[in-house]
Write a structure and sequence with these properties.
eight-stranded parallel beta barrel, two-stranded antiparallel ribbon, 10 strands, globular
Length: 346
């Protein structure tokens, strides 16, 4: 395994992070335990979850993933070996504290304390805002439309002050963002420096061969401010495994079960790009999965690549990507495809 610093902290996190959002929906507790055991055996020390999980979000599975991880900690007695990241949900889901504003002092305290209970721990290493409260672009939105009359949202300063209290209490160690924009990222960093409040050490945004939008405005901030990317959806919800090529829909796949015709990925440009990357992988005799994962692993602004799997053979293939290096010739061919079909799945 390879390791990188989490932001400007002294924590070394594995370049491969275990994503857990399927635990409690597509994966049972026993299957989750098997994945976590195997990941630790392979040198992974970084797990990511969220109060929202399992995915897809439903009231009956809310918090299930954290509970499974907490049960694993209780049985394995190895909490200190794992750098644990979780997230507080943003607004919009009625079964989570009524669905409204989520980053008030009361909601932040309630969310954190409940996550700690489910995870059976007294501290979180990295506590993240899952998506913004304000009106902005995330989850594939492209056209920002400013609303002068949007509902009031909690100021970045007030959120950071609550986080400072959590840090002082020992309940969290560091803070991160998720599904954030360059403006939000910059403002959080600026206010933290001005007010001597906790600094953001990471941003969890989508990044893959079919969505390299992070490179445009966010990557420079990450490198200059030492607050790297935790890349999620590196396989574009499975499209970059090749299993959906030629209009295939494998039974019991995520798209088959939950997201048929999902517009973020189900479009001609994505299918065309996937075919081109598939040809590159074939040419160099590696799987499309490992080409895709190895590309994410190779980026200097990436702190960790969040993988996810429902089957053990998928998990093993994802983790083994750490051993694949892409030479300049392969990167050049990848970039030619990107120039021709840029960011088809934002």
């Amino acid at each position: 395994m390879k390791y990188r610093k989490l932001g400007n902290t002294n924590l070394d996190v594995s370049l491969i992070c275990l994503g857990t959002m399927t635990y409690g929906e597509q994966n049972t507790q026993n299957e989750g335990f098997e994945q976590m055991d195997y990941s630790v055996e392979k040198g992974i020390n970084f797990f990511d979850t969220a109060e929202l999980y399992a995915i897809p979000p439903k009231s009956k599975t809310y918090g299930k993933t954290e509970e499974i991880i907490g049960n694993w900690f209780a049985q394995r007695k190895n909490r200190k070996k794992i750098i644990l990241a979780t997230k507080i949900a943003g607004p919009g889901l009625k079964w989570i504290r009524g669905g409204g504003s989520q980053f008030s002092t009361k909601s932040l305290e309630e969310a954190l304390n409940n996550s700690l209970k489910r995870l059976k721990t007294d501290y979180i290493d990295l506590y993240q805002l899952h998506w913004p409260e304000r009106n902005t672009n995330y989850f594939g939105d492209l056209n920002y439309e400013h609303d002068e009359n949007e509902k009031q949202w909690n100021s970045f300063q007030s959120i950071l002050k609550v986080f400072k209290k959590f840090v002082d209490q020992g309940k969290i160690r560091y803070i991160g963002l998720s599904n954030e924009t360059p403006w939000g990222f910059t403002k959080f960093l600026q206010i933290a420096e001005q007010e001597k409040l906790p600094k953001v050490v990471s941003v969890q945004n989508p990044y893959s061969l079919v969505n390299r939008s992070y490179e445009i405005g966010m990557s420079e901030i990450s490198l200059r401010e030492k607050a790297g990317l935790l890349a999620y959806s590196p396989l574009a919800a499975g499209y970059l495994t090749g299993k959906y090529r030629n209009n295939q829909m494998p039974k019991n796949s995520r798209m088959d079960l939950f997201y048929q015709n999902y517009p973020r990925y189900h479009n001609e440009r994505t299918y065309s790009a996937v075919d081109e990357y598939f040809n590159i992988a074939n040419k160099y005799k590696i799987s499309l999965t490992q080409l895709s994962q190895a590309f994410v692993n190779s980026r200097d602004f990436v702190t960790s690549n969040i993988i996810g799997a429902t089957k053990m053979d998928q998990l093993k293939e994802n983790i083994d990507s750490i051993n694949i290096s892409l030479d300049e010739k392969i990167i050049e061919e990848i970039n030619l495809v990107h120039e021709k079909i840029p960011n088809p799945a934002p």
